[in-house]
Amino acid sequence: ERSYEYIVVSRPEPSVLLVTLNRPKFLNALSSPLFKELNHALEAADKDDSVGAMVLTGSERAFAAGADIKEMKDKTYWGQINNLRKPLIAAVSGYALGGGCELALMCDIILASPTAKFGQPEINLGVIPGGGGSQRLIHAIGKSRTMELVLTGRNISAQEAAQWGMISRIVGEGEGEVVKEAVKMAKEIASKSQLAVQAGKEVVNAAYEMTLAEGLRFERRIFHGLFATNDQKEGMAAFAEKRNANFTHT
Ligand code: CO8
């Protein structure tokens, strides 16, 4: 355990880790020290058997307004979030711009409050997205809309992001609603077989890297592999016996 300066880590449920970005004065601009702490906390939770799923959020005003423009030097620390085996849910309120939008896109599921604003304003700084935005947006919202965001730097509302399929859905009105909903979802995910959850995440993500034929073979192989687990036997027995499954994650 260590204490953090730029993030707040809590356990709103025994099985859920909540990470709150905490540089409110700078709209959670993603500095290297912040990113180091974020990576440290997420990696520790990924290894912690008591954590089933994670939620990442910011403040009401900003999820994150981008990489720290005033710093912008060593940016080699983004990759690690992609290596997490456990699901990470983004709960977005306010600005998710530039690196903040890219950080949300690195998460497995995005929930947003009605105040959320997404965008890739790098073009206004004389650069382009550098944290995967151009590539991940293509998968999420298609070419024309990605081009529009990347080339004009315009922000889109939560409403547009939902219509465009970039986020799962818009949650509630009240302050903190989106975090509550994300924690609820994380708790539900954490109640499943963690072997199946991690397998599900792995095969969905494989679609980014593989052809359809390769992806179908990969899915089939992982699916068959799960039949060697106790959780598969328990899950199917519980269904037949009309009771809740008691997964042991083995
Ligand atoms: N970096 C550093 N500081 C920031 C950032 C940022 N991205 N965003 C806001 N801040 C600071 C402001 O400078 C201000 O600080 P101060 O009080 O010392 O002046 C404070 O936060 C509050 O911000 P504002 O006063 O500007 O608040 P407003 O409500 O007026 O405006 C905006 C909010 C519209 C969000 C505005 O702050 C803004 O435009 N921010 C910058 C958005 C942006 O351009 N983001 C993209 C950054 S580039 C990037 O993310 C590239 C990622 C590359 C990843 C590479 C990986 C390898």
UniProtKB/TrEMBL annotation:
Keywords: Lyase
Xref: InterPro entries: ClpP/crotonase-like_dom_sf (IPR029045), Enoyl-CoA_hyd/isom_CS (IPR018376), Enoyl-CoA_hydra/iso (IPR001753), Enoyl-CoA_hydra_C (IPR014748)
GO cellular component: mitochondrion
Protein origin, superkingdom: Eukaryota
Record bears the keyword Repressor: no
Gene Ontology MF: a single term: hydro-lyase activity
GO BP annotation list: fatty acid beta-oxidation
Family: Belongs to the enoyl-CoA hydratase/isomerase family.
Stated name of the protein: Enoyl-CoA hydratase
Species whose genome carries this gene: Hebeloma cylindrosporum
